[in-house]
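[Automated response] Your request has been received and processed.

Submitted sequence:
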Amino acid sequence: MHTCRLLVVDNEKNLGLLYKEELEDDGYEVEVVNSGKKALQLFDAKSFDLVIMDIFEHGINGIEIMRKMYHGNRTIPVIINTGYPPFNESFMEIEAVGFVVKSFDLSELKRKIRELITPKCLMNH
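Generated structure:
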């Protein structure tokens, strides 16, 4: 059985913890980092099925992180999870697969995750 592995990149520590708890309750394996640099290191070191990323991260912005991730592997979907909807189109141009407006209600994010990766992963529920 393959549990879907998610990488969450968000500089808001409390939101990252909320996402980890909620998504692990849904049967995903979740790693949370709060900087673009850490995200790139972890992305290169481990295998993930999906990345959830805010667009403004310490030291490097989300667009640059995505470009670096996609340079090595374009098969992993990225969901942009941000409170800045005007950036939607610029992310779609660099092949982000999903865009979700950041919220404490994770129903839209969870729906998008299921849509993008659940068919290739066997969930625990």
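Summary generated for your ticket: The mean pLDDT is 78. The radius of gyration is 13 Å.
If you did not submit this request, please reply to this message.
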